[in-house]
Design goal:
Elements: H1 2-23, H2 41-54, H3 56-59, H4 61-75, H5 80-109, H6 113-160, H7 165-174, H8 183-196, H9 201-212, H10 215-227, H11 232-264, H12 266-289
Subcellular location: Cell membrane
Transmembrane segments: 85-107, 113-130, 265-288
Main location: membrane
Length: 290
């Protein structure tokens, strides 16, 4: 078993080196593409060649579509195909590293547990990466949903005070004082730069809705585009009706988060309860035996 795992480790290492030489600078342009949370981009370039040659996207269309959809919601439509390939290469990189590490561990120690653990982790980690990506997208949607009613209230107050919709949104963005870490205000800042770059009000708003990819934002965009030309009391009234509905949805999201937080406390509480039982019961059992 040690010789087999040693040969497998050599084969994995040589295979990666050959692929690295073969792809050369073919994917160098993808190195500058911004993506958060990727730690093995340098290792993953050879796997981009494998993904392209083996046409993995055609064999796993549903998986590729879900990954690409999540990346589009996080980074936008532009370069979404390239980001999907980079993410897939990251998954292959983790699998390769764990298989290599497991093979080396078994080759040096002679224990079969090394290759078994490596194989299991090589299968689990890619699934965990995809699950974490979807979780981040859901968290982003919830953060946008929680902040949207606050934004809408500010717009209603400013429009009611005589500001135009465009100017009201700009004032809301400027109130952040350059801090655009929140996904909603980040997209709003992009929208304001599009206005300055020559985009029309309607086109910039539609792009904003597509980048957010949240149903409530689409409803907000539709309401604004249908009513902003009217102005006056009718426009403010329609925004107030939408605001009431969004506040109800915000309450639902808050309740959901509260339930999730309470469910996460169940396991630690059960663990503490078992520890207390052991601490209390062990002396009693020892006394009975004596």
């Amino acid at each position: 078993m040690r010789w087999i795992c040693g040969g497998a480790a050599i084969a994995l290492g040589l295979g990666w080196m050959l692929l690295r030489l073969k792809c050369s600078r073919r994917y160098a342009v993808l190195r500058s593409l911004p993506m958060e949370g990727l730690r093995l981009r340098g290792i993953g370039e050879p796997f981009l060649l494998l993904i392209e040659r083996w046409r993995i996207g055609s064999h796993l269309p549903s998986v590729m579509f879900r990954i690409q959809r999540s990346l589009q919601q996080s980074y936008g439509m532009r370069h979404s195909a390239e980001r999907t390939l980079i993410f897939m290469a990251e998954m292959f990189s983790y699998s390769w590293l764990f298989m290599l590490g497991g093979s080396l561990l078994t080759a040096f120690s002679g224990e079969q547990a090394g290759i078994i653990i490596g194989a299991v982790l090589a299968l689990i980690l890619p699934v965990a990466l995809v699950s974490d990506l979807h979780k981040k997208v859901r968290l982003r949607e919830q953060n946008i949903m929680l902040e949207l009613p606050e934004l809408l209230n500010s717009i209603v107050l400013l429009v009611g005070a005589g500001e135009t919709v465009q100017r009201a949104i700009i004032r809301c963005v400027e109130s952040r004082k350059g801090n655009y870490s929140h996904p909603l205000y980040k997209e709003l800042f992009i929208m304001t730069t599009e206005w300055e770059g020559g985009y029309s009000f309607q086109q910039a708003f539609e792009n904003f809705s597509k980048r957010c990819a949240v149903q409530e934002v689409s409803l907000f965009t539709t309401t604004v585009l249908l009513n902003y030309r009217r102005g006056g009391a009718d426009f403010v009234l329609s925004l107030r009706d939408l605001s009431r509905m969004l506040w109800e949805k915000r309450k639902a999201v808050s309740r959901t988060r509260g339930e999730q937080a309470s469910s996460k406390l169940v396991f630690p509480m059960v663990l503490i309860f078992l520890i207390v039982i052991v601490l209390v019961g062990t002396p009693a059992i020892m006394m009975l035996k004596m």
